[in-house]
Amino acid sequence: MRKVTISFITVLLMIAAFSTVTYAWLTLSTSNSIEGIEIGAISDSKLEISLDGITYYEHLPGELLMEQMKNLNLTDVTSIDGKNFNHGIIKEAKEVIAGKDYLSLTFYFRTTALERDVYLADNVSNEVTYDLTKDGTYITSLGRKWRANYTFLYDENEYIHEGDIRTYYIKDAMRVAMHEQRFDSFDNRDDDALLSKIFDLTENEHRGYAKPYGAYDYLLKITGKPYKLPTEIPNTTYRLSQFDSTSPFALDEASKVLTLIETNDVNEDGLKYYKGRLTINVWIEGWDADLFDGVHGDKVKIQFTFKAVRGLKENK
């Protein structure tokens, strides 16, 4: 199996306290600092990554990424498709800006190998902590202790009472979307053929989008206003694909994100390159059940691991 690891190693989301309720939930007033990002391929992989489609690396220099993120100032936004974002049900709210309100980066992949289907792989989010990480895909955060200022319904049958102190995590309210793009003008695939997926790496659909408890009930307690929950729910993937450990094939396509296509470019040995382009969006989901005061001020680490395989084993 070919494997590329995209590691957002020390992404610090320094989320400051807010003072007002602006939209349909508690809008975070954020001051976010990205301390360092590392993106690259493991040493025995033939996958390479580029930010511009011209210069490729096994390990993308961190300073190139930092230049792309100099205007990033994450705030809570919401999206049904992971492409189009807004600030909630108040449509006249200011425009959401990619690269400022949410992280958005486009990467180019290439290989000369037979493994050309690229997957997001190895979710270990529930196995790592802020100080103890491992290989694989994850979003983790340090956590923040918070004393509840209201009594609210935290879960279906569980209340958080005013004065209760617990530790809460911004990781639980984050989403990742991956959108396959046409590689160039000669890529004539239909729009429907391009993959587009939203991932919730917590694997916890119960505390996902637009639940009547958690952040929503907290909002009601603070504002006293009868806000309506959204009725349209994003198509979200809560698990990543499994792979055959004895062959270069996938067992399912749950987290397939990209297919590398044939080009006329060749390497120095005359081998043809197969290439692809992928946009990755990462945001704080405003309709998540875990987005309330308790997560403000948390620090996050993010790492993405990609595997390239030859297809599905069951078809071979």
How does the helix and strand content classify structurally? mainly beta
Order of helices and strands: EEEEHEEEEEEEEEEHEEEEE
* Large-scale geometry: elongated
Number of domains: 1
User: The biggest beta sheet, please?
Assistant: 8 strands, mixed
Count of helices?
2
Give the overall average pLDDT.
82
Radius of gyration using CA atoms only: 20 Å
The overall strand count is: 19
- Helix content estimate: under 10%
What portion of the residues fall into strands of 2 or more residues? 25-35%
Task: Please provide a written account of the structure.
With 316 residues, this protein is mainly beta. The chain has one domain (2-315). The chain is 5% helix and 34% strand. The chain has 2 helices and 19 strands. Strands 3, 5, 6, 13, 14, 15, 17 and 18 form an 8-stranded mixed sheet that branches. Strands 1, 2, 4, 7, 8, 16 and 19 form a 7-stranded antiparallel sheet that branches. Strand 10 (152-155) and strand 11 form a beta hairpin. The radius of gyration is 20 Å and the shape is elongated. It starts with a strand and ends in a 7-residue tail after the last strand. Mean pLDDT is 82; it is low at 1-36.
